[in-house]
Amino acid sequence: MTWAVTARAQAGVITRTQLRDAGLTDDQINILIRTAALVPLWRGIHIVRGAPLTYDARLWAAVLGLDGILGFGTAAHLWGVTDRPDCIEVIIPRAAHRWRHPEVRTHRIDVAAGFVTTRNGLPVTVRRETLLDHIGRLRPSAARQLADRAVQRGWLVPADFESRVSTQPGRIGNTLLRELGAMVSDGAAATSERVLHRLLRRAGLTGWDANVDVWCDGELVAVLDVGFRRVMLAVEIDGLAHHHTPDRFQRDRTRQNRLVGLGWTVLRFTWSDLVDRPGYVVATIRHHLRNSGSEAG
């Protein structure tokens, strides 16, 4: 394989080492540089004259310059999970030499071979590890939203959160991942209901009961998270990954339609609403209670 073929596969980028491996001498490489057939990008990294300095080219330069793996926000972008981050995030071994570039942020982590794959030819962390890495570095509200989306899409399962924390102790973000793991676990519903109950009590809202059974013609239609029986107002909480399967999503919609048909008003809130926008939750419930003429609001 000639060095031109190698460069073409790397968005026009090639290293001095790769040029040597292709059989060029240092004198021949220097001639290519002096004649601008190769344009220096970073130390030991060049791009072929005429090749555009695209985002892919910059990624290749970072990976080749550091002998690293794309991870965190950059890998998440390549997996189609997030928007493109401001900097290029590259994972390098803990023992790697220090290296700085204004476009690049390095993470010193020893990544197991099984956690690496390729996207567009570029080495990246596998989607599961990418998501856990990226989520662990986000603000809690953004982390909750992405974790919810990841589990709903099947990119992650609840056990992935606990596995990361237990197998990679000491990693930044483990505390947040542990909390998110609890939120998407089988016990998440009970946790979300406790949070809702605290909000209602602190707001002074009365007239509600937890786990309200709704029956019709001898059939149990639903068990409401919270129900204001007198005004037939149901409050339901969708925990993280609440709609993990299509069957569950369908059952929830069918159940809600039956409740509406029986005269219930159904308000649905998310985990993010409870913990990030509690005022919105309370205000919405209070608004519906007042419109119904209830003194509870």
Task: Give me some keywords for this one.
single chain; four-stranded mixed β-sheet; 297 residues; alpha+beta; 13 helices; three-stranded antiparallel β-sheet
The biggest beta sheet, please?
4 strands, mixed
> What's the alpha carbon Rg, rounded to whole Å?
27 Å
- Spans of at least 5 consecutive residues with low confidence: none
Please tally the β strands and state the result: 12
Number of helices: 13
Q: Class by helix and strand content? A: alpha+beta
Order of helices and strands: HEHHEEHEHEEEEHHHHHEEEHEHH
Helix content: 40-55%
What does this structure look like?
By secondary structure, the chain is of the alpha+beta class. It contains 13 helices and twelve strands. It has helices spanning 3-9, 16-21, 26-34, 55-66, 72-78, 127-136, 140-153, 158-167, 174-183, 188-202, 246-261, 271-276, 278-291; strands spanning 13-15, 38-42, 45-48, 69-70, 88-92, 104-108, 116-119, 122-125, 209-216, 219-228, 233-238, 265-270. The chain has a four-stranded mixed β-sheet. A three-stranded antiparallel β-sheet has the order 1-3-2. Strand 9 (209-216) and strand 10 (219-228) form a beta hairpin. Helix 5 (72-78) crosses helix 6 (127-136) and helix 8 runs antiparallel to helix 9 (174-183). It is elongated and about 90 Å long. The termini are far apart. The relative contact order is 0.08.
Secondary structure elements and pairings:
Elements: H1 3-9, E1 13-15, H2 16-21, H3 26-34, E2 38-42, E3 45-48, H4 55-66, E4 69-70, H5 72-78, E5 88-92, E6 104-108, E7 116-119, E8 122-125, H6 127-136, H7 140-153, H8 158-167, H9 174-183, H10 188-202, E9 209-216, E10 219-228, E11 233-238, H11 246-261, E12 265-270, H12 271-276, H13 278-291
Parallel strand pairs: 5-6, 11-12
Antiparallel strand pairs: 1-3, 2-3, 4-5, 7-8, 9-10, 10-11
Helix pairs in contact: 5-6, 6-7, 8-9
